[in-house]
Amino acid sequence: MKSRFEQRIMKLSILITSPLLILLIGIITYTEINNETSRVKRSLGEVALEISDTKFVKDSIINKKFNLQKYTKVFVDNNQDIDIVVIADKDKKRYSHPDPNKVGKIFGTKDSENVLRYKKGYFVTTRGSQGLTYRREIF
Q: In this predicted model, which residue has the larger pLDDT, 118 or 11?
């Protein structure tokens, strides 16, 4: 049987280490979430730039062709960080969208919670038709 002194030492050590352990778990979780968010933002930027610089996409928008649905589906299927690709022109008219009923309609960023400006566009955290989304908009 443990003495009272040993029991007090055990309780004191648990009392001291528990908050430190909880703090350490919190720091690690926060760091992992930030790393994941950065990775997703990087993927969004790469896909957005790749799509926006594609001659096929530019020609389809200039010639008013609405055949970009299958093209954008390839990017969604081949990238685990991308769930939706929407292509819109300068006037925010959609040329592709996961919901075909929205193609041809005006694209809007309504409840922007966080906007980061870049040279060719911006990165937005907003609520869209699919819930809270990260968006990389290029113009």
A: 11
Residue ranges of domains in the chain: 4-138
Whether 1 shows a pLDDT value over 50: the answer reads: yes
CATH code linked to domain 4-138:
3.30.450
Cα–Cα dist 93/107, whole Å: 6
Percent of the chain with pLDDT strictly greater than 70: 81
The distance from CA 10 to its chain's CA centroid, rounded to whole angstroms, is: 45
Helix, strand and coil content of the chain, in percent to the nearest 5, comes to 50, 20, 30
Which residues have CB under 8 Å from 43's CB, separation 6+?
A: 79, 81, 82
Q: How confident is the model at residue 44 (pLDDT cuts 50, 70, 90)?
A: confident
- What does the DSSP 8-state code read for residue 101? G
Contact 57, 68 (CB under 8 A): yes
- Cβ-contact 121, 136 below 8 angstroms: yes
